[in-house]
Amino acid sequence: MNYNIYLSGEIHTDWREKIIENCHLKNLNITFTSAVTNHEASDSAGDPLGSETDSFWRDHKSAKVNAIRTKNLIEQCDLAIIRFGEQYKQWNAAFDAGYCAALGKPYITLHDRKLVHPLKEVDGSAQGWAETPEQIIEILEYLLNQK
Questions:
Q1: What is the dihedral of CA 137, 74, 10, 43, to 10 degrees?
Q2: pLDDT given for residue 138 in this prediction
Q3: How far apart are CA 13 and CA 85, in angstroms?
Q4: I need a labelling partner for 133 at 20 to 30 A (CA). Which of 48, 71, 107, 110 fits?
Q5: What pLDDT does 42 receive?
Q6: Whole-angstrom Cα distance, residue 78 to residue 88?
């Protein structure tokens, strides 16, 4: 069995790398995809459409260009892992969770216990909530190695 997993959300810690590296070490047959995690590259995605003097319009153009990638990758995934960190508000991650829910795509949220209340609706539609990348790895190992 092969899984296509989309990794969404917070880009300021190494949670993606932990999951990817450990799944590879366990020889799990998973293809991982993700939003662009280089903040400046993501913010400048719309720059080819013309320069802007107002940062709102630059962000607006870049969000639309980034949405092309995100939309396609979510539609193609078998499962999404959606990470919410504490440092920033990940509105894009909440949007990705809602898109997964609308498509009937399973997703698991990954966040600290402190965010349970603000994310209650997002978690309510998830197939699971994990606090650590290690929990995600255990779930993926279960999903892929059961006979």
A1: 150
A2: 97
A3: 9
A4: 71
A5: 93
A6: 27
Give the residue extent of every domain in the chain: 3-145
Structure tokens at 98: 């809602």
User: What is the phi/psi pair of residue 42, to 5°?
Assistant: -65, -45
pTM (2 decimals)?
A: 0.93
Q: What CATH code is assigned to 3-145?
A: 3.40.50.450
Mean pLDDT, rounded, of the chain: 95
Give the whole-angstrom CA distance, residue 127 versus residue 108: 6
pLDDT < 70 regions, the chain: 147
